[in-house]
Recover the amino acids of this structure.
């Protein structure tokens, strides 16, 4: 085939139709002359329905450019370089609103006369809707927010919710990271529940809880007689999750051998049972989670680099509870309500000293440990409120717990904050009021941070 479109106009037409953006041309009077396949797909209008018609088709509410096309043809000198960039909301042939963004260039002949214009545009409807959701989230400010069973109002969690919403609105492969107990499985279930796959299965497995010899059979299935003990055909988890979501928890604990087989499934979109000769096509959305540093595993050659990049497409980091202390009252309120309803207890609140202790504790086990502590407190509470003495010993006496247990490692940000607090206290002669004023925080907040970082006066 002759690929020189200067000698073969059909090649140029094929190239234009293959482009993902809408392309059109109009004559000097503003009537459509050409309309490519992407323009048809975005607007719903066939070429024969628009060619020869005036360009008002691309006019609509909030138009900033396309609606001025006839004016631009009359006054091309008003353009910077003869190009006009625009955005517009139009109605498709089927009546739905479509947001488009693109540009128009006025075409002139050798003597400067306008002979028409060429334009291009893309469909940005999904992006506009995503930004609207983000704006709605930001408008809530510090109000409690939730996504599935996750709840919080801290800036850290608002960012988590934003990314969870974006993940749910797409089919992207998600990697959930964070310490144990931060709610990674809850996040995975929430993404699935808010996605287009919500009516299909969500299949979850903890990869670290299954021996490698059995994990392959669990993931991919097996044929009867494939190995000792395979007494019947068994579908794998990929088959069971077909059309839905597969959640692989602790993905950092699987062996390189399993990584190779997973990589093939993810690339080929098909799976084969152990002992089978044929493959099965699958449509599965993958969500993985880990508490480990996957980059370090790659550097140590414990994880294949190609596998890492295959699962590390859209990362969402779940912060530890010690980095979202302001969310603890919300979590406590929600958990106490759920726990007491299940245990049929009459506890309906937490005393002030108990709440201060809960907010001062470092929570190495994160949200899971907080729930366990509240379950114990609800059992031993004798009144209608949880008091300080109802809490576990390690929370009531964090200093004693620190003396018997190794401290959890601090992040660089936490260590830097601890140094700032110690410096402010030293400069103020360990006067907490002046130190708090210097740090720009309240005296109560300073007291909580001193307890969290085990800062004691000399």
């Amino acid at each position: 085939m002759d690929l020189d479109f200067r000698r073969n106009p059909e090649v140029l037409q094929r190239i234009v139709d293959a482009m993902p953006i809408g392309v059109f041309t109009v004559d000097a009077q503003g009537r459509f002359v050409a309309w490519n396949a992407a323009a048809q797909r975005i607007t719903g209008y066939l070429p024969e329905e628009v060619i020869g018609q005036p360009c008002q088709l691309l006019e609509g509410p909030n138009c900033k450019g396309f609606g001025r096309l006839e004016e631009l043809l009359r006054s091309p000198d008003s353009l910077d370089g003869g190009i006009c960039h625009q955005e517009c909301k139009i109605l498709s042939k089927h009546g739905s609103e479509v947001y488009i963004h693109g540009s128009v260039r006025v075409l002139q002949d050798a003597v400067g006369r306008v002979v028409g214009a060429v334009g291009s545009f893309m469909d940005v409807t999904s992006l506009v809707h995503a930004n609207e959701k983000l704006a709605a989230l930001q408008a809530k400010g510090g109000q409690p927010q939730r996504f599935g069973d996750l709840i919080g109002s801290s800036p850290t969690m608002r960012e988590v919710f934003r990314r969870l919403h974006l993940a749910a609105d797409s089919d992207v492969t998600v990697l959930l990271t964070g310490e144990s107990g931060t709610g990674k499985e809850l996040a995975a279930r929430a993404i699935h529940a808010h996605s287009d796959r919500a009516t299909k299965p969500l299949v979850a497995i903890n990869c670290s809880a299954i021996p490698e010899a059995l994990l392959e059979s669990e993931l991919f299935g097996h044929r009867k007689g494939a190995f000792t003990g395979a007494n019947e055909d068994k579908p794998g988890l990929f088959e069971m999750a077909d059309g839905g979501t597969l959640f692989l928890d602790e993905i950092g604990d699987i062996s390189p051998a399993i990584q190779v087989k997973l990589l093939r499934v993810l690339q080929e979109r098909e799976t084969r049972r152990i002992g089978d000769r044929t493959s099965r096509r699958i449509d599965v959305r993958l969500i993985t989670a880990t508490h480990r540093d996957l980059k370090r595993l790659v550097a140590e050659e414990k994880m294949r680099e190609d596998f890492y990049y295959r699962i590390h497409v859209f990362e969402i980091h779940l912060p530890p509870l010690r980095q979202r202390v302001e969310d603890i009252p919300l979590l406590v309120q929600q958990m106490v309500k759920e726990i007491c309803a299940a245990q049929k207890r009459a506890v309906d609140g937490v005393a002030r000293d108990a709440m201060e202790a809960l907010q001062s504790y470092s929570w190495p086990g994160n949200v899971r440990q907080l729930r366990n502590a509240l379950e114990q407190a609800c059992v031993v509470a004798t009144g209608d409120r949880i008091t300080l003495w109802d809490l576990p010993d390690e929370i009531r006496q964090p200093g004693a717990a620190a003396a018997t247990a190794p401290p959890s490692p601090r992040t660089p940000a936490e260590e830097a904050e601890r140094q700032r607090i110690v410096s402010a206290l030293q400069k103020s002669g360990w006067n907490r009021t002046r130190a708090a004023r210097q740090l720009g925080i309240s005296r109560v907040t300073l007291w909580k941070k001193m307890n969290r970082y085990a800062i004691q006066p000399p």
